[in-house]
Each structure stands twice: as C-alpha cells, then as structure tokens.
Design goal:
little secondary structure
C-alpha cells in the first residue's frame, strides 16, 4: 500500500509542508524518518516508530514487516 500524503494548503511562508516539502502519511502517521518503504495501513506503534527511526531495524515492504540489520 502506498502512503497517503498530507497535503497542506495554507501557503504560509515557512510552512514545513508547503515550503519544505516534508512527507507525512495520514494513515500510518509516519513522518520523514519514521516513514517505511510502504504504508502498513494503520498507525505505527511507539515501539515500531523507535525501531524504524532510532534503531533502523524495521521496515514495512510489500505487505509485511521486515527486520533489518541495525544501522551502525
């Protein structure tokens, strides 16, 4: 499943979405570094977010969770 991107329409100078082009999925609630390859179809848990972003050991690809070798 593809991520469903938040689309800001405020057009305010300095907006992190309009000006910065930052990505945020409205389904999984992933944001930039916590975005997986594909959307898991539900909000990610705090533990999953930690494993995706801080540890770099988790991803969601082709409909399943994939455990990866930790980032060095």
């Amino acid at each position: 499943m593809k991520h469903t991107w938040y689309e800001c329409k405020c057009n305010q100078p300095g907006c992190m979405f309009c000006d910065g082009g930052l990505g945020h999925c409205t389904v999984c609630n992933g944001f930039e570094g916590t975005l997986t390859t594909d959307c898991c179809g539900r909000k990610i848990t705090e533990d999953e977010e930690d494993s995706i972003y801080k540890k770099g050991t988790l991803d969601f690809v082709n409909g399943e969770w994939v455990h990866k070798v930790p980032n060095k």
